[in-house]
Amino acid sequence: MNILKKTLTAAAISAALLPATAVQAGEVEVLHWWTAGGEARAAAALKEMMEEQGHTWKDFAVAGGGGEAAMTVLKTRAVSGNPPAAAQIKGLDIQEWAKLGFLTSLDDVAEANNWDQLIPPVIADVMKYEGSYVAVPVNVHRVNWLWANPDVLEKAGVKVPTTLDEFYKAAEKLEAAGVIPLAHGGQPWQDATVFEAVALAVMGPEDYARAFVEHDMEVINSPMMEKVFSEFAKVMSYVDDNAAGRDWNTATAMVIRGDAAMQIMGDWAKGEFTAAGLTPGEDYICAPAPGTAGEFTFNVDSFAMFSLDDDENTEAQKDLARTILEPEFQTVFNKAKGSIPVRTDMDMSNFDACAQASMDAFKSSAKNGGLVPSFAHGLATTSYIQGQIFDVVTNFVNTDDKDPARATDQLAAAIKAAM
Ligand code: GAL
């Protein structure tokens, strides 16, 4: 029996032993975009834990990595007065939805369960609107990861690259050996995921934050940004010609199969390796994206809770919020998802080596200034500015005649227009 099943069975037994009065059944409709292999296993853990408490789970999955499609569908549902109980909404968007009056306060659940003590303050702040919790964080994803197939690297005689220059040298050898150096897909958020890893490597965390959090024009419109674009162009030159329209998990599968050597992607990719039964350090390698060791681009998944009319469904919604932060869910879910628990008091000894490395880097980078929010995943800036950055970056990827100076001008103009 795998660990997921074992823990779920244990949860089922303890739920069965609860007095019947503790269960007031309701329905929770949950919007998310977790449809890839590892993501779906992780989402199933939440569904099962809710069902074990007697509630009904109404799955509202909208496929599409990064969640752009899901957000479009959510807007339509909310505007028509029929929002789900919970929706995967992240970062500054939580504030936007709360400001519009759609969200409900979770303060009673938060107080009863000591959320302020459990959740790191930088994350708790994002979950609160005017001092009240309106969302609950699920996990912490590290975005600046490199995933690699060790057999493929070995056959080409290359080591895991730790800098951009090492990456280019390795990529040349891999190409000569007939493998695709970098697996990548064809969506704007995937381009932005690689772009922000390169930006962090070139700029360092301080200037990264000045550009992508504070939107300081001196840093955005600078020779340093031109360098980010020229390095990004070099990295992307090692992607095969068929990337257009490819999903991120298809790119991960290329690394798993050995058709490609590496992928720069957040640790939801680890969910794919885990779902395939693979072991880190043996079957695949996780390493910081080249040039970003010790630094940590964070992406926190969270569920915002919508105001509901029905009392039983509101109770079920509260149970959902409480369950998400319980240690048992944090363990089962994050093992499947590839992320680390959002609670920093968790025992990490039964997590894999990549998760342990991630938790160490999360804690140390928070102390030394290397912890920065991911703009590719909505944690650094508004969705308007994020959309503008995506457009510039993706246009750059899809243009044959790549001009870093022109792209830098476009980036500055685009961000200015959305501020
Ligand atoms: C991110 C999300 C992750 C993962 C990824 C790919 O934005 O935070 O949980 O699902 O998209 O779908």
TrEMBL record:
Keywords on record: Signal, Transport
Alphabetized Pfam families for the sequence: SBP_bac_1
Record has Translocase as a keyword: no
Coiled coil: none
Signal sequence, start to end: 1-25
Keyword Transport: yes
GO cellular component assignments: periplasmic space
Major site of localization recorded for this protein: periplasm
Subcellular compartments: Periplasm
Cited function: Part of a binding-protein-dependent transport system for a sugar.
Family designation: Belongs to the bacterial solute-binding protein 1 family.
Protein name from the UniProt record: Probable sugar-binding periplasmic protein
Origin species: Marinobacter subterrani
